[in-house]
Amino acid sequence: MVGRLLPLDPIEEARRQWDQRWPGGATMAAATSIMRAQQIVQASVDEALKPYGLTFARYEALVLLAFSQRGSLPMGKMGERLMIHPTSVTNIVDRLEGQGFVRRRPHERDRRTTLVEITDAGREVMDEATGAVVACRFGLDFLSEAQLDQLTSLIRAVRVGSGEVPA
Amino acid sequence: MVGRLLPLDPIEEARRQWDQRWPGGATMAAATSIMRAQQIVQASVDEALKPYGLTFARYEALVLLAFSQRGSLPMGKMGERLMIHPTSVTNIVDRLEGQGFVRRRPHERDRRTTLVEITDAGREVMDEATGAVVACRFGLDFLSEAQLDQLTSLIRAVRVGSGEVPA
DNA sequence: ACATGATACTTGGACTTCCGACTATCTGTC
DNA sequence: GACAGATAGTCGGAAGTCCAAGTATCATGT
Fold first, then answer.
1. What's B66's domain CATH number?
2. Is A110 helix (H, G, I), strand (E, B) or coil?
3. pTM score, whole prediction
4. Distance CA B84, CA A1 (A)
5. pLDDT under 70 in chain B at which residues?
6. Which of A53, A156, B18, B112 has its CA 20 to 30 A from that of B69?
7. Distance (Å) from CA B164 to C1' D30?
8. Which chain A positions have a beta carbon within 8 Å of B38's beta carbon?
9. CB–CB of B123/B66 below 8 Å?
């Protein structure tokens, strides 16, 4: 019986033990699954982006800027859209600016705000990197279109619950 | 935390723009959703664990040790089960040891191996902390039992695809 | 016996993230 | 007009992650 020698799913194993002591084993299993899924997606995309000197976070920032109407956004707006902390925006923009993919510009009316503008080099690397990201399929190659939408929809319920997005 | 109410769902907005240029918008939306879900779970659990001086990562390590037969495991085995880098295990055990929740012990046969053993204080704080974690429901309060299982099952397909777990 | 390679853990460094505190600037109210 | 409070961004520090390299120990083959 070689098949029986294969290791068990560690998450199912943890759930089995959890259920013997505490309530909410299904919740624990789902939470652990989400943590693990994030690692898989992150590793897959970071691997695809490595040749371009980008991380997932910096790549997302470039895509956001490229999508924006004027090719520039205030730092705070970026953090809002990317759902990251203001200090993380500072860090990301520092590095992208060092790589020549974005530049900081002063806002004409409000001297508190700093606009971040994508450069031609930034658009170029973003275009090339996107090919690699699409090719790696975000590490989600084994899900069908329907399963992808199901996953997105389930997580939207979580995000609605957290108050992040309206129902 | 970054949680704020936004006028539109930024993920749906990004998907709309993505679909105008590149293939795989559903994959991008699912990947982004997973990244965001992880942040929500992490923030929720870290918040619940703060009064006990624990992070999610350290809490998971304590639970793993408490679940183990002898209450102790080699460092490498911990990293394997928790799916984290060996240096992260060193870091986590350093801090847990500093808090008095675990202790390092030499392996009797293999002097390369370091066993990590949970202490009485470790079991105690783990028990109390688990109450808080169960109460916060891992930030997944708005999902039904069926939805939780659906989520776990979908992500299991991802994990199978990544080769982490057998079909 | 002993050389070679594998294994177990640690160290130092780079990177990312968050929090708290800080400066600079704008806005609304009296 | 002035001032209290809100807002925008940055800095320093803590925590966590990974990688590359290093030390110590074990296992294997001749």
1. 1.10.10.10
2. coil
3. 0.89
4. 31
5. 1-7
6. B112
7. 38
8. 34-35, 37-38
9. yes
Residue A154 domain flag: no
Q: Which pLDDT score, from 0 to 100, does residue A13 have?
A: 86
CA–CA distance, A136 with A1 (Å, rounded to integer): 36
Place of tokens 């089960």: B81
B166 in any annotated domain: no
* A105: β partners: A115
CA B88, C1' D16: Å apart? 8
Q: Report if residue B103 sits inside a domain.
A: yes
Number of domains observed in the structure of chain B: 1
Query: Could you tell me the pLDDT band of residue A7, with boundaries at 50, 70 and 90?
Result: low
Provide Rg for chain B, Cα atoms: 19
> What are the Cα distances from residue A110, in Å, to A77, A88, A107?
14, 22, 6
Q: Mean pLDDT throughout A73-93?
A: 94
Which H or E element spans position B124?
helix B120-136
Amino acid at A28: M
